[in-house]
Amino acid sequence: MKIGIGLPNTVLHTTGDEMLAWATRADERGFSTLATIDRIVYPSYDSLISLAAAAGATSRIGLLTNVLLGPLYEPYLLAKQSASLDQLSGGRFTLGLGVGSRGDDYRAMHRELSDRGKRFDDELELLHRAWAGEPVEPSIDGEPHGAGPLPTNGAIPLLIGGQPRHVAPRAVKYGAGWTIGGGGVDMARAGTETFRAAWAEAGGLGEPCIVALTYFSLGEDNVDESRANLASYYAYLTEWVDGIVNSAPRTQEAVTETVKAFEDIGIDELIFDATVRDPGQVDLLADAVL
To answer: What is the value of pTM for the model shown?
Structure first.
Protein backbone atom coordinates (compact mmCIF):
# COMPACT_ATOMS: atom_id res chain seq x y z
CA MET A 1 0.00 0.00 0.00
CA LYS A 2 1.33 3.42 -0.96
CA ILE A 3 1.32 6.24 1.60
CA GLY A 4 0.46 9.80 0.54
CA ILE A 5 0.02 13.01 2.47
CA GLY A 6 -2.37 15.93 2.19
CA LEU A 7 -1.42 19.58 1.89
CA PRO A 8 -2.79 21.79 4.68
CA ASN A 9 -4.86 23.74 2.14
CA THR A 10 -7.95 23.74 4.38
CA VAL A 11 -6.12 24.25 7.69
CA LEU A 12 -6.98 27.67 9.08
CA HIS A 13 -4.26 30.37 8.98
CA THR A 14 -1.82 28.33 6.87
CA THR A 15 0.59 30.59 4.98
CA GLY A 16 1.80 30.19 1.42
CA ASP A 17 5.33 29.57 2.66
CA GLU A 18 4.06 26.75 4.87
CA MET A 19 2.19 25.20 1.93
CA LEU A 20 5.33 25.15 -0.20
CA ALA A 21 7.53 23.91 2.64
CA TRP A 22 5.04 21.08 3.24
CA ALA A 23 5.18 20.14 -0.46
CA THR A 24 8.97 20.09 -0.71
CA ARG A 25 9.36 18.06 2.50
CA ALA A 26 6.77 15.54 1.32
CA ASP A 27 8.65 15.17 -1.96
CA GLU A 28 11.99 14.71 -0.23
CA ARG A 29 10.71 12.23 2.38
CA GLY A 30 9.25 9.79 -0.15
CA PHE A 31 5.47 10.09 0.12
CA SER A 32 3.68 8.76 -2.95
CA THR A 33 1.18 11.59 -3.41
CA LEU A 34 0.50 15.16 -2.33
CA ALA A 35 -3.26 15.73 -2.09
CA THR A 36 -5.77 18.49 -1.46
CA ILE A 37 -9.36 18.46 -0.24
CA ASP A 38 -11.84 20.99 -1.56
CA ARG A 39 -14.76 23.25 -0.83
CA ILE A 40 -15.84 26.61 -2.19
CA VAL A 41 -17.39 28.33 0.84
CA TYR A 42 -14.46 28.04 3.24
CA PRO A 43 -11.25 30.07 3.75
CA SER A 44 -9.11 27.40 2.10
CA TYR A 45 -6.56 27.45 -0.70
CA ASP A 46 -7.77 26.59 -4.19
CA SER A 47 -6.82 23.01 -5.00
CA LEU A 48 -5.65 23.42 -8.58
CA ILE A 49 -3.59 26.53 -7.88
CA SER A 50 -2.09 24.87 -4.79
CA LEU A 51 -1.06 21.80 -6.78
CA ALA A 52 0.34 23.94 -9.59
CA ALA A 53 2.56 25.70 -7.07
CA ALA A 54 3.49 22.33 -5.55
CA ALA A 55 4.34 20.98 -9.01
CA GLY A 56 6.91 23.74 -9.44
CA ALA A 57 8.38 23.12 -6.00
CA THR A 58 8.72 19.32 -6.37
CA SER A 59 10.11 16.84 -8.87
CA ARG A 60 8.83 13.36 -8.01
CA ILE A 61 5.68 13.22 -5.90
CA GLY A 62 2.23 12.63 -7.40
CA LEU A 63 -0.42 15.36 -7.22
CA LEU A 64 -4.10 14.69 -6.45
CA THR A 65 -7.31 16.64 -5.96
CA ASN A 66 -9.19 14.58 -3.37
CA VAL A 67 -11.71 15.77 -4.45
CA LEU A 68 -12.83 18.68 -6.63
CA LEU A 69 -16.59 19.22 -6.71
CA GLY A 70 -16.94 18.53 -10.42
CA PRO A 71 -20.40 19.99 -11.15
CA LEU A 72 -19.27 23.38 -9.79
CA TYR A 73 -16.63 23.74 -12.51
CA GLU A 74 -17.16 24.78 -16.12
CA PRO A 75 -16.12 21.62 -17.98
CA TYR A 76 -14.00 23.12 -20.76
CA LEU A 77 -12.12 25.30 -18.28
CA LEU A 78 -11.53 22.30 -16.01
CA ALA A 79 -10.29 20.32 -19.01
CA LYS A 80 -7.80 23.08 -19.80
CA GLN A 81 -6.69 23.50 -16.19
CA SER A 82 -6.21 19.79 -15.55
CA ALA A 83 -4.35 19.17 -18.82
CA SER A 84 -2.13 22.19 -18.12
CA LEU A 85 -1.30 20.87 -14.64
CA ASP A 86 -0.63 17.43 -16.09
CA GLN A 87 1.85 18.83 -18.61
CA LEU A 88 3.51 21.25 -16.20
CA SER A 89 4.05 18.47 -13.65
CA GLY A 90 5.37 15.95 -16.17
CA GLY A 91 2.32 13.69 -15.92
CA ARG A 92 2.20 13.56 -12.11
CA PHE A 93 -1.39 14.81 -11.73
CA THR A 94 -4.48 12.73 -10.91
CA LEU A 95 -7.88 14.42 -11.02
CA GLY A 96 -10.14 13.39 -8.16
CA LEU A 97 -13.76 14.42 -8.66
CA GLY A 98 -17.03 14.12 -6.77
CA VAL A 99 -20.39 15.87 -6.58
CA GLY A 100 -20.56 16.90 -2.92
CA SER A 101 -23.68 17.67 -0.94
CA ARG A 102 -23.21 21.15 0.54
CA GLY A 103 -25.90 23.57 -0.54
CA ASP A 104 -23.79 26.66 0.26
CA ASP A 105 -21.11 25.65 -2.27
CA TYR A 106 -23.74 25.23 -4.98
CA ARG A 107 -25.54 28.46 -4.14
CA ALA A 108 -22.26 30.39 -4.22
CA MET A 109 -21.57 29.10 -7.74
CA HIS A 110 -25.18 29.64 -8.90
CA ARG A 111 -25.63 25.94 -9.58
CA GLU A 112 -28.50 23.62 -8.69
CA LEU A 113 -27.84 20.86 -6.20
CA SER A 114 -30.68 18.66 -7.43
CA ASP A 115 -29.28 17.82 -10.88
CA ARG A 116 -25.61 17.53 -9.96
CA GLY A 117 -25.40 13.82 -10.84
CA LYS A 118 -26.56 14.33 -14.42
CA ARG A 119 -24.29 17.34 -14.89
CA PHE A 120 -21.40 15.31 -13.50
CA ASP A 121 -21.98 12.59 -16.11
CA ASP A 122 -22.09 15.23 -18.86
CA GLU A 123 -18.90 16.76 -17.50
CA LEU A 124 -17.00 13.45 -17.47
CA GLU A 125 -17.96 12.88 -21.10
CA LEU A 126 -16.88 16.37 -22.13
CA LEU A 127 -13.58 16.20 -20.23
CA HIS A 128 -12.55 13.09 -22.12
CA ARG A 129 -13.53 14.62 -25.45
CA ALA A 130 -11.51 17.74 -24.65
CA TRP A 131 -8.49 15.72 -23.50
CA ALA A 132 -8.62 13.85 -26.81
CA GLY A 133 -8.24 17.18 -28.63
CA GLU A 134 -11.77 17.31 -29.98
CA PRO A 135 -12.56 20.85 -31.18
CA VAL A 136 -14.86 22.89 -29.01
CA GLU A 137 -16.36 25.06 -31.74
CA PRO A 138 -15.02 27.29 -34.53
CA SER A 139 -13.18 30.22 -32.97
CA ILE A 140 -13.13 33.80 -34.19
CA ASP A 141 -10.59 32.85 -36.85
CA GLY A 142 -12.94 30.20 -38.18
CA GLU A 143 -10.63 27.33 -37.23
CA PRO A 144 -11.66 24.49 -34.88
CA HIS A 145 -9.51 24.42 -31.75
CA GLY A 146 -9.31 22.18 -28.72
CA ALA A 147 -9.77 23.38 -25.15
CA GLY A 148 -6.17 23.02 -23.99
CA PRO A 149 -2.92 21.05 -24.26
CA LEU A 150 -3.13 17.31 -24.74
CA PRO A 151 -2.42 15.28 -21.59
CA THR A 152 0.93 13.52 -21.42
CA ASN A 153 -0.65 10.04 -21.52
CA GLY A 154 -3.80 10.66 -23.56
CA ALA A 155 -6.12 11.38 -20.63
CA ILE A 156 -5.82 12.53 -17.03
CA PRO A 157 -5.95 9.66 -14.50
CA LEU A 158 -9.22 9.84 -12.57
CA LEU A 159 -10.43 9.03 -9.09
CA ILE A 160 -14.13 9.44 -8.32
CA GLY A 161 -15.56 9.96 -4.85
CA GLY A 162 -19.08 9.19 -3.67
CA GLN A 163 -21.44 6.32 -2.92
CA PRO A 164 -20.10 3.03 -4.36
CA ARG A 165 -23.24 2.21 -6.36
CA HIS A 166 -23.08 5.60 -8.11
CA VAL A 167 -19.31 5.63 -8.61
CA ALA A 168 -18.80 2.09 -9.95
CA PRO A 169 -20.47 2.49 -13.40
CA ARG A 170 -18.60 5.76 -13.96
CA ALA A 171 -15.33 4.22 -12.80
CA VAL A 172 -15.73 1.26 -15.16
CA LYS A 173 -16.64 3.49 -18.11
CA TYR A 174 -13.64 5.78 -17.70
CA GLY A 175 -11.09 3.44 -16.13
CA ALA A 176 -11.17 5.42 -12.90
CA GLY A 177 -10.58 4.43 -9.30
CA TRP A 178 -12.64 5.11 -6.20
CA THR A 179 -11.59 7.47 -3.42
CA ILE A 180 -13.06 7.16 0.07
CA GLY A 181 -13.57 10.14 2.40
CA GLY A 182 -12.26 10.39 5.95
CA GLY A 183 -14.83 8.23 7.72
CA GLY A 184 -12.45 5.75 9.32
CA VAL A 185 -11.42 2.18 8.65
CA ASP A 186 -14.79 0.60 9.46
CA MET A 187 -16.56 2.72 6.85
CA ALA A 188 -13.78 1.99 4.39
CA ARG A 189 -14.03 -1.76 4.98
CA ALA A 190 -17.76 -1.87 4.29
CA GLY A 191 -17.51 0.54 1.38
CA THR A 192 -14.66 -1.37 -0.25
CA GLU A 193 -16.66 -4.59 -0.26
CA THR A 194 -19.67 -2.80 -1.75
CA PHE A 195 -17.58 -1.02 -4.37
CA ARG A 196 -15.77 -4.14 -5.54
CA ALA A 197 -19.10 -5.93 -5.97
CA ALA A 198 -20.60 -2.94 -7.83
CA TRP A 199 -17.45 -2.70 -10.00
CA ALA A 200 -17.80 -6.33 -11.07
CA GLU A 201 -21.55 -5.95 -11.65
CA ALA A 202 -20.87 -2.94 -13.89
CA GLY A 203 -18.48 -5.00 -16.02
CA GLY A 204 -15.17 -4.00 -14.46
CA LEU A 205 -12.25 -6.33 -15.06
CA GLY A 206 -9.56 -7.10 -12.52
CA GLU A 207 -9.22 -5.18 -9.28
CA PRO A 208 -10.25 -1.52 -9.11
CA CYS A 209 -7.92 1.10 -7.65
CA ILE A 210 -9.15 2.26 -4.21
CA VAL A 211 -7.70 5.21 -2.35
CA ALA A 212 -8.63 6.14 1.24
CA LEU A 213 -8.22 9.29 3.31
CA THR A 214 -7.59 9.63 7.03
CA TYR A 215 -6.78 12.74 9.03
CA PHE A 216 -3.83 12.92 11.42
CA SER A 217 -1.65 15.04 13.67
CA LEU A 218 1.44 14.13 15.68
CA GLY A 219 2.80 15.69 18.86
CA GLU A 220 0.92 16.50 22.06
CA ASP A 221 1.28 20.24 21.45
CA ASN A 222 -0.74 19.94 18.22
CA VAL A 223 -3.80 18.06 19.50
CA ASP A 224 -5.92 21.12 20.27
CA GLU A 225 -5.18 22.76 16.92
CA SER A 226 -5.94 19.51 15.10
CA ARG A 227 -9.27 19.07 16.83
CA ALA A 228 -10.26 22.71 16.32
CA ASN A 229 -9.47 22.65 12.60
CA LEU A 230 -11.45 19.48 11.97
CA ALA A 231 -14.37 20.79 14.03
CA SER A 232 -14.40 23.97 11.97
CA TYR A 233 -14.17 22.26 8.59
CA TYR A 234 -16.92 19.74 9.38
CA ALA A 235 -19.17 21.94 11.53
CA TYR A 236 -21.97 21.60 8.97
CA LEU A 237 -22.27 17.87 9.79
CA THR A 238 -23.51 18.76 13.33
CA GLU A 239 -24.15 15.39 15.02
CA TRP A 240 -21.34 13.60 13.11
CA VAL A 241 -18.59 16.15 13.64
CA ASP A 242 -17.39 14.68 16.94
CA GLY A 243 -16.89 11.30 15.31
CA ILE A 244 -14.65 12.82 12.65
CA VAL A 245 -12.71 14.92 15.16
CA ASN A 246 -12.09 11.91 17.41
CA SER A 247 -11.23 9.47 14.60
CA ALA A 248 -7.93 11.09 13.57
CA PRO A 249 -4.84 9.20 14.83
CA ARG A 250 -2.67 11.53 16.91
CA THR A 251 0.14 9.32 18.21
CA GLN A 252 2.84 7.37 16.38
CA GLU A 253 1.32 4.12 17.60
CA ALA A 254 -2.15 5.10 16.36
CA VAL A 255 -0.75 6.14 12.98
CA THR A 256 1.04 2.83 12.45
CA GLU A 257 -2.07 0.91 13.54
CA THR A 258 -4.10 2.92 11.02
CA VAL A 259 -1.72 1.94 8.23
CA LYS A 260 -2.02 -1.73 9.15
CA ALA A 261 -5.82 -1.57 9.33
CA PHE A 262 -6.21 0.00 5.89
CA GLU A 263 -3.62 -2.31 4.39
CA ASP A 264 -5.53 -5.32 5.72
CA ILE A 265 -8.66 -4.37 3.74
CA GLY A 266 -6.74 -4.03 0.50
CA ILE A 267 -6.54 -0.27 0.05
CA ASP A 268 -4.11 0.67 -2.72
CA GLU A 269 -3.10 4.05 -1.31
CA LEU A 270 -3.75 5.77 2.03
CA ILE A 271 -3.60 9.57 2.19
CA PHE A 272 -2.88 11.13 5.59
CA ASP A 273 -4.55 14.55 5.46
CA ALA A 274 -3.22 17.50 7.40
CA THR A 275 -5.05 18.98 10.38
CA VAL A 276 -2.31 21.37 11.56
CA ARG A 277 -0.23 23.79 9.52
CA ASP A 278 3.33 23.05 10.76
CA PRO A 279 5.48 21.50 7.96
CA GLY A 280 7.30 19.57 10.68
CA GLN A 281 4.31 17.22 10.62
CA VAL A 282 5.63 15.82 7.35
CA ASP A 283 8.85 14.58 8.97
CA LEU A 284 7.02 13.22 12.01
CA LEU A 285 4.67 11.21 9.80
CA ALA A 286 7.46 10.02 7.53
CA ASP A 287 9.43 8.79 10.54
CA ALA A 288 6.37 6.83 11.69
CA VAL A 289 5.18 5.21 8.47
CA LEU A 290 7.79 5.30 5.71
So the answer is: 0.96
